[in-house]
Amino acid sequence: MDGRTSHAAWKTLAVEASSLAAQGELGQAIEAGEKALVAAELELGADHIGIAAIVADLAVLHETAGAYVQAAAFYERALAMREKAPGGADPTVALACENLAHLYHLLGHDPAATPLYEAALAIRESSLGSDHPRVAATLDDLGDVLVAQGRYADAFDLYRRALAIRQNAFGASHFRVAASLDRIAALYQARENYLKAEKSFQKSLALRKGALGPDDPAVALSLQRLADLHAQRGRLKEAGAGHQQAIELLEAASGPDNLQIAAGLDALAAYSITADKQADAQPLLERALAIREKNLGLVHPEVARTLAVLGPLLDARGRTTDALWNCERALRIREADLGPDHPLVAASSAQVAELYRARGQYALAEPLFVRALAIRDKTLGPDDPELARSLADLAELYYVLGRYADAKPLYERAIAIKERLLGPDDPSLALFLNGLAVLSSVQGHYAAAEPLYKRSLEIWEKSLGPQHPDVASGLGNLAVLYYEQGRYEEAEPLHKRALAIREEALGPEHAHVATSLENLAELYRAQGRYDDAEPLYLRALVVGERSLGPEHPEVAVSLNNLAELYRVQGRFDEAAPLYERALAVAEAALGPEHPDVALTLQGLAELHRAHGDYEAAEPEYARALAIREKALGSDHPDVALTLDGMAALYEDTGRDEEARALRERAEAIRAIKR
Q1: Which segments of 380-487 does DSSP mark as H helices, in order?
Q2: Which of 247, 495, 526, 663, by CA, is between 20 and 30 Å from 147?
Q3: All domains in the chain, ordered by first residue
Q4: Which of the 8 DSSP states describes residue 87?
Q5: What is the spatial distance between Cα 603 and Cα 580, in angstroms, rounded to a whole number?
Q6: Do the beta carbons of residue 621 and residue 604 sit within 8 Å?
Q7: What pTM was estimated for this model as a whole?
Q8: Position 86 pLDDT exceeds 80
Q9: pLDDT for 396-434, tens place per residue?
Q10: Closest by alpha carbon to 523, among 499, 507, 500?
Q11: What is the DSSP letter of 49?
Q12: Residue 125 and residue 387: Cα distance in Å, rounded?
């Protein structure tokens, strides 16, 4: 024996693969199927029609495991073999076309899926007749890929034809008719014809209840779809009740691990996030993840989808390391299952990049943002909103890095896309206008920044109403511009209005309220109104600790700002413990090399220098400088600030030559045209 599989054993291995798949052992099933394929190829030849079934089975196994790229390759091979066989237009070719088209649809390759479904439809109609129920299924599938391409009118005709076939074949009250009603309703929903959508979903629900009974799992599907429609119309209470009812029905019918339950948990979590109740959303998403992992395995695209939602939620709750782990895992799954150029890989790349950016790991963030942009530029077309989002993401990173010349054209292109796609008054456009305004402001181009801030504010007020939290953001940004110009009297009422809006809309204990308090306090500090600033800083700190937790990085910023106030007042004994706590929180939450750590180190160094403790100040300046140079680049404006501080220390200690060199370097940085 040479250890090779006997040629005669391939049929046994194929049966074994099927048995293992039925037991949920997908990895072992794939291994047995691949051995069966090798043995069959040796016996029959690589192109023999007799092995087409094994190839197709391997495709199904990979698809079930979520390995869509590998599955597509097997489906392509199976189709080619079926087409070459005598009588190449039989139902097995139709099935092979449908299988491959379905995979292309999952991969987002809908233009490639369309002709395959059309070919399958022609075969089905020829072999079965135009009114056969199997034809209706193919009509539905073809309609789905047309919807994905925005061809709603063509899809509607196909869905209506499938509905008529099912009604004629089974009767108007048969449960199979509900599938057609659902698709027609979803199409109405996509076109924002909510009344017709609701009527069709309600009809589907009544039909399933009547035909199958009120406790059948299929009824849960109708409840979920109707709930999603309620959510889209802003009726979150009805939506939540519908999803909860569906979950309870499914739990009673098939236990707590039914895969369909995960979809309901996703929806309930989304409603909690919308209501700013992240603590309620987290256990829902964690349960949805556990259900999908149990049913689908650890590396399925649906698992990745849950991880991609859970990650940002954990980040919002201050669990940045856990957030990054979840999002990186989602990225790895999508790369393996969907291929390196899939739009969802771009989405995960951008998500991981954003987490790195927030942690100050800009060198890790940049290539991921660049990759996301390249994928979207290649796959989505020149006017896609996700492409605009990638442009703005990369522009924001370049702004942080002081690469203003690189950031500006990205913002301008993103704005142009949004204006072409959505018009001049869309709220999402305002966000990009605001980013370009910030960029102009930091370069000292105040005359260019002000109309951008005002336009973004006007869009938000017009589209969202004068009391919306986004309006508060616009007011705060314009106020900061006035603050930077020394226009304090104009800035103050804007900050106060922003604070009032956030307190009314979000409640007095919301983290965004703390931001407005900080902004107003900063204004008062700049004016020397220390007695007015201090209670605002203190309240901002309390609100931040309550809303975000005492170890959140935003709390470190509040601690640092209050310490700065005490330092400029000469209250060194009160400032020192605040700086030290801010440093500990920032290091724990963001890592020891984040720019926020450098900010606090510089504050501590300034405090120690003012106290005459030069031995403590110098290593703090040096560490702050090293962090900023590594994270931001050696020519960043913040590096110049640290060089100035070190130069002042050297001047205080009689090291004039060293001080002069640092001053010259700082001036050279400021002279750079950005």
Answers
A1: 385-400, 404-422, 427-442, 446-464, 469-484
A2: 247
A3: 549-674 (1.25.40.10)
A4: S
A5: 10
A6: no
A7: 0.78
A8: no
A9: 998 888 788 899 999 999 999 999 988 888 888 999 999
A10: 499
A11: G
A12: 41
